[in-house]
Design a protein that fits this description.
Layout lengths: L1 H14 L8 H35 L20 E2 L4 E4 L2 E5 L3 E2 L13 E2 L4 E6 L12 E5 L7 E4 L8 E3 L17 E3 L2 E2 L6 E6 L5 E4 L5 E7 L7 E2 L5 E2 L4 E5 L6 E6 L8 E6 L5 E2 L8 E6 L1 H4 L12 H9 L3 E6 L20 H6 L4 E4 L10 H17 L6 E4 L9 H17 L6 E4 L24 H4 L8 H19 L2
Parallel strand pairs: 21-22, 21-23, 23-24, 24-25
Antiparallel strand pairs: 1-4, 2-3, 3-6, 5-6, 7-17, 8-19, 9-12, 10-11, 12-18, 12-20, 13-17, 13-19, 14-15, 14-16, 14-18
Helix pairs in contact: 1-2, 4-9, 6-7
Length: 492
Amino acid sequence: MIRRLFCAVVALLLTAPAVAQLDPAARGLAAQANQTATAASAQASRLSRLRAASVAARSNNVMINPPLSVPVAWAASTAVFQGEVRASNGNWYVAVTAGTTGSTAPTTTAGAAASDGAVLWSYIGPPTITANDPAAPTVTQGTTDPNSGITYTYASFPGAYALYGGYVVFDGSNRLTPMGYYLKAGARQVGPGRRLSFFSDDAAPIIIGTNTNNAWRISIDNLDGRGPRMITPSGLTMTKPYITINNGSAKPRLYTIYLAPQGYDGFLGVEVGGQSQVWAPSRSGDLRAVVIGDSTVQGSGQGPWLAGGDVASRLAALTGIADVWSFSAGGTGEINPSANGWYTFGQRIPEALELKPDVWIIMGSVNDRTYSAASISAAVQATMTAIRAGGSKAPIIRVGAWPIANDATITTDEFAIKAGYDAFAATDPYPHAWVPWSTGSPPVITWPYNTPAAAPGGNNQRYLGGDGHPTDIGTAHEARRLAEATLSALVP
């Protein structure tokens, strides 16, 4: 449709008299046609870029590529921190809580966390690598600065880094503390999906983190055609903030630091030798998406615990949309502000418009189930209309409600969201798509209430934690389903 409209407008402009010779009404029509042609061309360019990015992402996906190093084996009476991965009984597990391990190794393959007697563990899947890759660097951490050379701080050299999914904010010690959108007036959230990328040609960059609570994950792309790889499946705790990554030889490599999915982070800079440098990757051609949702996107007490394991980070890796912003808050919806009085989905639109996203992804929310179907539909339509009223012609992907429980009211909620989408779609001339979530075939999470008797079901035991929210493995499943649906809708 976009291509036909563009060609028709071009033909009109080529066969019309010179604009200067037309009367005012005709000049107005010609100007309007030119604007339509420009908009059509911009849409075609956006979709073409998305198609190219999605193809590249499939062979360059850090979330799918195996890490460079295997996790250590689970052991009794050993101190672990949240986000640390251990191998046990042929599977990998991430620590949900910090502490000292008990006496019984975890064996579960269900979503709900299991205790080893002292520490809670969440299943994240079978091993993806059984021995360290020969290209794996050695990694050491300490509490004192090794003082190896020049420090490229973010404050002094912002051009040395590319920041994704967050605003540049500094704390009182001049450390970068990237933040997300306003939860409500005067209250910014930390925000999942934040990451930093940089090139360095040193053999052993020193990454200086300054927070004592979180665990970061770091990937390296050796530019050898094998794509980016996580150094280790575990996070690197900031209790020892001076991280030495020794590659053995100096050559340009691309590094990415995945910040905590939930929590405050402080980043000072990168320290390299006197003959080495740090510089930023190009942002030219980057696509940007805004994802609006609730706790199933923001994260919850059920996970994810791995840095980079959140929906926004995974969508960036799966789709090739480099800059994915999460405008999500637990307990909220189209109408429900939660007990905290956070902004509803529609109230987040003005700030999101300032980012000029190339793609909008708006999730449904089960937090609206207590409201009438008519009010949910009206709010859905109003939110999407506000995007267009703000000048954005970018594609809008509208998603149904996450099946958080075995509850048929979730289907009713999804039908109400779909009715609001249909009312908007009936008059919207720009790209948009509907993605069923609870009523899909198959649903993203299967329960007895939403799964036909002839179809296999029960994946809720694998992907959900104790209260129906996705765990690390569940968030990976959520992001995969969302990415494939988004690409199917936008990239024929």
